Amino acid sequence: MTDTALPTAEPAATMGLQRAEAVGELRDFYRLLKPRVMSLVVFTAIAGMLVAPGSLHPVLAGVAILCIAVCAGSAGAINMYLDRDIDAAMHRTCGRPIPAGRVAPAEALAFGVTLGLFAVMVMGLAVNWVAAGLLAGTNLFYVLVYSLWLKRRTPQNIVIGGAAGAVPPLVGWAAVTGGVSPEPLVLFGLIFLWTPPHFWALALFTDSEYARAGVPMLPVVKGRAATKRQMLIYTLLLLPLAPAPYVLGTAGLTYGVVASLAGILFVIAAVRVLGDDAPKQPAARRMFGFSILYLFLIFTMLIADGAARAII
Question: Is 0.85 topped by the overall pTM?
Answer without folding.
Answer: yes
